[in-house]
Amino acid sequence: MFTARHRLELPSLPKLANPELEAELKGLIDQKTKPLHALGRLEALALQLGLILNTSKPQIIDPQIRVFAADHGLTAEGVSAYPKAVTQQMVLNFLAGGAAINVFARQHNIALKVVDAGVDGDFEAHPDLIALKVMRATRNSLQTAAMNADECIQAVVCGMGLVREAPGNLLIVGEMGIGNTSAASLLLSKLGSLSIDSCVGPGTGLEVNGIKHKTAILTQVLHKHRNLKNPLEVLAAMGGLEIAMMVGALLQAASQRRILLIDGFVASSALLVAEKLQPGVKDFAVFSHHSAEPGHSQLLKLLDATPLLDLQMCLGEGTGAVVAYPLLKSALGFLNEMASFSSAGISNKDAE
Ligand SMILES: Cc1cc2ncn([C@H]3O[C@H](COP(=O)(O)O)[C@@H](O)[C@H]3O)c2cc1C
Ligand SMILES: O=C(O)c1cccnc1
Q1: Beta strand pairing status for 170-176 and 259-262?
Q2: How close is the Cα of 286 to the center of ligand 1, in Å?
Q3: What CATH number is attached to the domain comprising 145?
Q4: pLDDT recorded at residue 3
Q5: Which of 106, 112, 206, 321 is the Cys-Cys partner for 172 at CB 3.0 to 4.6 Å?
């Protein structure tokens, strides 16, 4: 139960609107040696990154990936195609450098740390592992709240603290938690007032009957927690420890003017909760890709977001975000390095 004692201090957001800087950036972009608007969405991206970093010469410095891992009590109801043990096994795979996110992170030279937010298993100390286990898996949300108020707030606060101490000005949050597409679907349905059918999908690969079963279970979970309204209470009742930590990480990162490079369905569900808690957080977000998980379309609509890529990916871990990362480098590359019409001595449109 949330009571008056359970208060979460949210970091305040810096103001993004800056008409002078916006005019300067637009002027720079329009003066580059290209037809007007010819770099398409890279131009809007360059403008957004300039406004987030609050400079006309934005640079990405020391980009960071944090992969948050945790288990879900709801997996006892058979909502995932894979067993819960895969969460712990995949954490070991991350630490050994063998997962998709490791490959892409190495490819683009992005620092990666794995966070144990609540995996049902133990790990030996490892330089890339941050141990913040709040509890061993959430409780089964069909029976009771997944987290109590203290646990949920602790997870959000841990996520904030982690980012406060991290270097860099761009953050990718990834996740690993068998069962977490169920938590994301529940959060989307509840916070977006959407029918659960439009928010559920195969996750790691459920077939038609598996999706029917998942939908039936999630319908019951929503009924059990039907009286909740406050986004933090909804997060505690139906979310996950890794999602709660991602919420804290995103809130903190935005408050420090970091670029939030958002992955797929599950990461976007954390952003939705963050946006409900602190409206405006999403303006610091770049949406990397459109996940093939069906609920992501609803979630993107709700957040009024148009992602950069649609590669039919549905993996999580932060993979879609890292794959889109070079587009941000290209946007900043043209802004900072391209010649202008005057510097290159090229005639602009309408010149005599
Ligand atoms: C081997 C393997 C690697 C993964 N990496 C990310 N996920 C993804 O799948 C899980 C969510 O799907 P569901 O809700 O259906 O369980 C999350 O752990 C997510 O990050 C994986 C899943 C598996 C099986
Ligand atoms: O898009 C995602 O985040 C996703 C989709 C399926 C499974 N895990 C994550």
Answers
A1: parallel
A2: 23
A3: 3.40.50.10210
A4: 81
A5: 321
